[in-house]
Amino acid sequence: MAEAADFPGTSPSPARRWLRRTAALLVGTPLLAGLLQAPAGPVAHATAPSAPPAVGSATVDVSLDALTPTAPDEDDKLTVSGTVTNHGKQTVTGAQVGLRVGSAPLGGRSEIDSAAKRTSYQPGLDGTEVGGKYVDKFDRLVPGVRQDFSISVPVKALHLGADGVYQLSVALTGQSAAQGYQQVLGIERTFLPWQTAAADTKTKTTYLWPLIADTHLTAKTESDEQQTPVFRNDDLADDLAPGGRLQQLLALGSDLDVTWVIDPDLLASVEAMTKGYRVQNPDGRSSRVGKHQAVATAWLNDLEAAVKGKKVVALPFADPDLASLAHNGRAVTGSLSHLKDATDAGVSAVETILHVQPSTDFAWPAEGAVDPSIVDVATSAGAHTVIARSDSFRETDGLTYSPTAARPIGGGTTAVVADARLSTAFQGDMTEAENSTLAVQQFVAQSLMINLQDPGKQRSIVIAPQRMPTASQAQAMAKALSTLQDGQWSQFEDLTAAAKAKPDPRATTRVPSTGVYPAALRKQELPQPAFESIRDTQGMLERFQVILVEKDRVVTPFGRAIDREMSTSWRGHPSEATAYQTGVKNYLRELTEQVALIDRSDAKLSGRSATIPVSVQNNLVQGVRHLKLRLSSQNPTRLKIGDGLYEEIDVEIAGGHSQSVKFTTTANANGPVPVSAQLFTEDGEPYGKAVHFDVNVTEVTPAVMLVIAGGLLLLVLAGFRMYTQRKRAARKLAAEGGPHEGPDGESGATSGEGDPEQPSDPTPDTAPESTEPSDTSERVDR
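^ DUF6049 family protein, sequence as received from the core. Prediction below:
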């Protein structure tokens, strides 16, 4: 600081050198006091002396990668390990890593927050170094080189006092050529929970353990009897395999006292894999055989064993986004009805697959953020409890402690307000050992501090972590929970019991207004057009199912696919959500188009009446019924169909077959007449596209009349000739002696004048052209 006041290129005068040394002495005195850990007082908090150490303490990065045990007893040995890396430009010499413990417990939860945010060394706030043999020394720290350290110290040597949370720092001291005296060059802080005996009143702690996944199943199934499902990809198999996210959640949760919160869609997807499945190829049209049935079966069996006798909360099927429904879906007709269907489907899936009776009394909005509209939607399907979070339900009564989670919010609804600090403790990147270690220590410290806020007042605290923890996050969560289970200030309570706990009369019960709903969360919601697309798909499904013989083969997979379109998992993935919705709708449309009229060419009628065939094709695997085919004339005065304007005939077709339906027509004039064929459902709704063609009616031509007349004349002449020949033969027979006698001597002819009547004489075999309609089997030329 003094050198900066000298002019460049000149030597400081004796007077200036004296002033500089005096200033250095004044600045160094508080620093020395800090290094010697003098009692905290005004000097320790002085502004001037704290600045130099703050600069130096950023030279070396100290990483605290492991601390065991998390909450030690007085007979334990505390082991701290990690790495130090010199980020400066000069080699550090005479370095050592030591532990510093605060002289007194921290005063509250906010002090834990403040200590965790500090990044530089501050004398008086970072405690006294344990020193002695409990250090790890380094002769040289070369720039850019990482070196490991490990320190083990008996807990008794830490000289901890009253129960509470102590700040524990790992600091590296050393010197360099530019800083030729020992000082703190790097520091990392964490927290040491200290409870010497079991608390008289323990905090009841509820931890939600979520088994929720992204959407994996498509709406498509194979056409076989089992309706083999088709998956979007094979990522679910990776999550279920050893080391995968879901396998880790299951294995870790099995050993913990937790409340399982399960999306039934995940169960249904895994069960589908166990029975054989296919995976959609990148082209979206073809698929390949899935090969991970064994992994899925093992995971499902392990889950069934893990939840036996435990509390299980079933979310509505596919975990629908309640906030999106409340803010963007309510204006779209029919959107809220899906929530009740999803709830019923979720219960059925959990009962069938896991053989347990789940609770469906809980609704869990994204991030626990609520407003009145979200509460209304959340409870519309029968839930009476909404899982919120304390950063949404902010306390307004100046409480000095964390209140019990349950509180009534009106209308018979209870809000279970999860603790925000504890719920978000493991949302960061837990793949780094340092991040995981610090998160675990801070979580456990906050838990103990809650108990110490009001030791004689028992409270129920609920923790609702992120919906889909990674494997590393789950491991950190499990380590922290294991410490609580073995600790002396916390006891497990399931979610149902926590919801029924006696509310704190001072805790806020006012639901936050819609205006304070977080803007960042609102940006992630499904937009209104998404719900309009869902409405259109549902309408198409309802029209389609009425014609199906086995409607469950279509209604069930598409109903669940519609649930998946509203999933909370689409947050932050708008393009994927749109693609999934479009895929469901397009596939349903493809199926409906498998039942259709076959296009035909124009027809020609060569007469007053005829039949016109129209063909219907069913390319579905199953049969269709409850369809009517209507053939309509656009000019009934010239061409009547049936008895007038149109005729309807019932249609029922087996799967993979076609049917030709014949309609009776009557022509009253020549010329073309437009005709349309259209399928209708029983309730009169048009089904599919109409087929349009012309029927061309032609009169009988003169040439045809001449041919017919000539033929009739030939027939008459032939008959007359036969008649005259028989008469001539009869006369000749009479002239030769009369007829022969019969066996009894009777004549074969009667007496009298004239020729005898010939019983075999033919009657006329022609008649005038009939004016009646032709037979209905008359051929129609195309």
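The longest strand covers residues 164-175.
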